[in-house]
Amino acid sequence: MYLTIKETAEYLSLPESYIESLVQQRKIRAVHDGEQYLLYRDQFNQHLEQMEKMKRQLAEYLSEPIPEDIDVKDED
Predict the structure, then answer these.
(1) What is the pTM of this model?
(2) d(CA 11, CA 61)
(3) In CATH, what class is 2-64?
(4) Domain residue spans in the chain?
(5) How far apart are CA 76 and CA 55, in angstroms?
């Protein structure tokens, strides 16, 4: 499925100007139909999956309890 730049910006929660600059820099594949650029939505799936994976890993890391320091209980 192809999306316009506006729809892509909404899909990725990014500003339209940023998407346009990525298209102009050829960092995002796009097709120009004479009036507007069309972007293939599935090219972003891997990126979005990796972002979700990183969010889960960060949440797990932050929810992990801090271990007690061995030296704190050591009274010489």
Answers:
(1) 0.62
(2) 28
(3) mainly alpha
(4) 2-64
(5) 43
Distance from chain centroid for Cα 59: 16
Look-up of token digits 């600059």:
21
Q: What three-state secondary structure class fits 5?
A: helix
For 53, other C-beta atoms within 10 Å of its C-beta total 10
Instruction: With a cut of 70, say whether residue 71 has pLDDT above it.
Output: no
Provide Rg for the chain, Cα atoms: 22
Q: Which residue has the higher pLDDT, 67 or 7?
A: 7
36-46 average pLDDT score: 89
Cross-sheet strand order for the sheet of 2-4: 2-4, 37-40, 31-32
In this structure, are residues 8 and 23 in contact, taking their beta carbons and an 8 Å threshold?
A: no
CB contact at 8 A, 28 and 41: no
